[in-house]
């Protein structure tokens, strides 16, 4: 077996049920923490054989009621993945915790929804990744400057759709 060849592996089914993950950013003053709970993860028919793909699904409940759904195909030889990511009703105040030192606002009101399809591949020491069908929706946005009680920006709803991004091209 060549040194750059993965050992032969076939995983028929892996499941994580009722899992939990906590993200904490210790580099910030406030040490923001977000817990995803419950997490359901399924991985089927994953193999190290060349050009074989396995299916995966990940579902998680976000803090304050939003949801994350991620599904697609995964390959280990070459390392590649394609699929769909849907984040629904993410509370903007939850995400704000992680940027509060650089965004001089109070915790914002409102929610965000993000959807996208993606393709990613790591081969020959290079990452190639694209996102397409990108959609972003904001609802109930209210931004208040730090220390203020009145919003300087309110937005009932806004939506962008049909976006695309290429990691290699940076556009």
General description of the model:
With 171 residues, this protein is mainly β. Helix content is 3%, strand content 63%. The protein has 1 helix and 8 strands. It has an 8-stranded antiparallel sheet with strand order 1-2-3-4-5-6-7-8. It is elongated, with a radius of gyration of 19 Å.
Provide key terms for this protein.
171 residues; mainly beta; 1 helix; 8 strands; elongated
Q: What is the succession of H and E elements?
A: EEEEEHEEE
Report the helical percentage: under 10%
What is the straight-line distance between the termini? 40 Å
Radius of gyration: 19 Å
The strand count comes to 8
Q: Which of globular, elongated, flat, extended, rod-shaped describes the shape?
A: elongated
Secondary-structure class? mainly beta
| Biggest beta-sheet profile | 8 strands, antiparallel
Count of helical segments? 1
Query: Overall mean pLDDT score?
Result: 92
Task: Return residue spans where pLDDT drops below 50 for at least 5 consecutive residues.
Answer: none
Percentage of β-strand residues = over 45%
Question: What topology, given as strand order, has the largest sheet?
Answer: 1-2-3-4-5-6-7-8
